[in-house]
Specification:
By secondary structure, the protein is α+β, with helices and mostly antiparallel strands. The chain contains 10 helices and 25 strands. Strands 1, 20, 21, 22, 24 and 25 form a 6-stranded mixed β-sheet that branches. It has a 5-stranded mixed β-sheet with strand order 9-8-7-10-13, with helices on both faces. A 4-stranded antiparallel β-sheet has the order 5-14-2-16.
């Protein structure tokens, strides 16, 4: 990491916005959002309180709540009400010159983060298309200031759009051709229109005899294997998402659109070997929900299939198999009812375990998202230290009750328990959260919210339209990255008011600042990076000028040339005060950088 000792250069007039916005930067004295890690003995409960129409109840006090753990009352140590600020005035975002980007925002800090998870692994294509249609309708009335990210799930988790409050950016993602519905390789009917067991329903006919029984057994085992793999990939994706979110402070609302998710696969008494298809993902489910709750993630599962009727009555099915074997209709109905009930049970279990709410048997997916955001934006945070200090891994159920007669009519949503694993035990990959990332590590995650402890601007432009076989100086590409490259300049304009400068015995103002630019692909894989550390010692006059004008610096980062535009790349640009551990960061799609002659700021010597 290059270290540069410098007398900080002054900002040109083009970078005055950050200085004008300095009063909106968070103060060092402001309270930080409560974040609870796995090794904490403090239990944190986010409690959503609504009436019977899911409208939030406001203005409750700590004395209105009672918390019990295994029926033992607990002492509430901290109590906070979280509510989105009133939108009395429109949010005014700064208008910047072309190719100039900033992390300044008029949005309030410490508001919940919302994640839309589009589950292509477990959802037929026709239902995926309906989800996107409903989400585009939702964006027409999206709450101002709501911070939303979009993830996709196939056999792995993929980030489609980082956190943004701009509905047009979200609209472009949801309607873009690169993110169209995908066919799941593990669904029995990846397109949609079929129903579980329909192919095998005719095999109950005695005309088939032993051959039909063998075929039925084979089909059932194949379907069981597909379900097991879908459960495994789904839980792995949820784990990855929970680890990603664990470093971000505050509450996260995960709105998960899925067509199905079988938690248990029960023995089938109609098969020659009933237990050949039996499997369970309950252990993995426990680990996943445990990781989600320690990361303060509330899950709102939404059944992407909407309001369903038994598919065997659909006009698309001929009914010939039922005519040959009338008992098959009853069997098919029973199979469909059982599988649907199990899928909805799993969604309820995930919601109950994390403090969310499941939505199914409704075509109003847009309304489900609106309710999820409303519920997840107004909540109460209660903390307590358990009276039982024996960490033996047992499940401890939690109950939250209202102390008033009026409160008995309210509906409460909160996580209903946790596993009392020793919080001081060494972390393991499967049962504990990932190591807590540094402030800068979290800030530089692909798609993460833009921290604003340090306000800055970045002018980004292509140096040349001709690819170069050589990568830029001081760049650190990933091992498999190859040229040719296009080089981009990144000119920083940093408001230094929230950077700590210590006074040395000689009367100089000493600062220690890190400037980092990362290049990611669409999957969040790091492609290239550059980092510079500036050590500054300034006399009083120079310090006064820097406080008025700010810091200027320039870096050059190379991007693999992509003439056929097969890849999407993203800059993640950050400023880190190494003394005060304060950060600022922005994310810029390479596609958002318009071609123009680059204006290169002179690098600090």
């Amino acid at each position: 990491m290059p270290r540069i000792r410098t007398s900080l250069a002054l900002l040109p007039l083009a970078f005055t916005l950050a200085l004008q916005a300095q009063s909106t930067a968070p103060s060092a004295n402001e309270p930080s959002t409560l974040t609870v890690r796995k090794n904490s003995h403090l239990v944190v409960l986010d409690v959503v309180v609504t009436d019977n129409k899911q409208n939030p109840i406001r203005g409750l006090k700590q004395s209105d709540f009672t918390v019990l753990e295994k029926n033992t009352p607990q002492t509430i140590l901290n109590f906070d009400e979280h509510e989105p600020p009133p939108q009395n005035a429109p949010l005014v975002f700064p208008k910047l010159p072309q190719n100039t980007f900033t992390n300044y925002t008029p949005l309030p800090e410490n508001q919940p983060l919302n994640i839309l998870l589009l589950d292509a692994l477990n959802t037929p294509m026709k239902d995926q298309a309906y989800v996107r249609y409903q989400m585009l309708r939702f964006l027409d009335g999206m709450p101002p200031g709501a911070r939303i990210a979009v993830f996709g799930l196939t056999t792995h988790l993929r980030i489609l759009q980082g956190f943004t409050s701009d509905p047009e950016i979200l609209r472009a993602v949801l309607s873009g051709k690169k993110n169209l519905p995908q066919s799941s390789v593990l669904l029995n009917d990846p397109v949609g229109g079929d129903y579980p067991g329909s192919d095998a329903s005719s095999f109950g006919s005695p005309d088939f005899g032993e051959v039909s029984a063998n075929v039925q057994q084979f089909q059932a085992e194949i379907q069981s294997f597909q379900m097991q793999m879908r459960a495994r990939y789904t839980l792995d994706g949820m784990n990855d998402l929970a680890r990603y979110l664990s470093g971000l402070p505050g509450r996260k609302n995960l709105i998960w659109f899925s067509g199905s998710f079988p938690l248990d696969i029960l023995p089938d008494g109609d098969l020659a070997d009933p237990f050949a298809v039996m499997a369970s993902a309950e252990d993995e489910f426990r680990q996943t929900t445990d990781l989600l709750t320690t990361s303060q993630v509330a899950v709102y599962p939404v059944d992407a299939r909407g309001l369903m009727t038994p598919p065997m009555f659909s006009a698309a099915n001929s009914g010939r198999s039922f005519a040959r074997n009338p008992a098959a209709l009853t069997q098919a109905m029973g199979n469909w009812d059982q599988q649907t009930a199990e899928e909805h049970f799993t969604m309820d279990a995930m919601a109950d375990a994390t403090g969310g709410k499941a939505f199914y048997n409704t075509n109003g997916l847009k309304e489900a998202v609106q309710k999820s955001l409303t519920m997840g934006s107004h909540y109460y945070t209660l903390t307590y230290t358990p009276t039982n200090t024996k960490w033996n891994g047992d499940f401890r159920d939690i109950k939250v009750k209202m102390t008033t007669a009026e409160g008995a009519r309210y509906q409460l949503y909160f996580r209903h328990g946790y596993y009392a694993d020793d919080p001081d035990r060494p972390a393991t990959p499967h049962t504990a959260a990932a190591p807590v990332p540094s402030a800068m590590g979290t800030a530089m995650l692909r798609g993460a919210p833009n921290p604003t402890q340090i306000i800055f601007e970045a002018y980004v432009a292509k140096l040349s339209s001709t690819p170069d076989a050589t990568i830029a100086l001081d760049n650190a590409p990933a091992p498999k990255v190859r040229g040719p490259y296009l080089s981009y300049t990144i000119n920083y304009g940093v408001d230094v008011h929230n950077i700590i400068f210590e006074t040395t015995p000689k009367g100089l103002h000493h600062g220690h600042v890190e400037l980092v630019a990362l290049l990611y692909d669409a999957d969040g894989t790091l492609i290239n990076s550059i980092s510079n550390t500036i050590v500054a010692d300034m006399d009083a006059a120079h310090y006064a000028n820097v406080m008025q004008r700010g810091l200027r610096f320039s870096q050059i980062l190379s991007v693999p040339a992509d003439p056929k535009q097969k890849h999407e790349y993203y800059f993640r640009i950050g400023v880190h005060d190494l003394t005060g551990d304060r950060v600022g960061a922005i994310e810029v799609p390479v596609a958002a950088v318009h071609d123009q002659t680059a204006i290169v700021s002179p690098a600090t010597p």
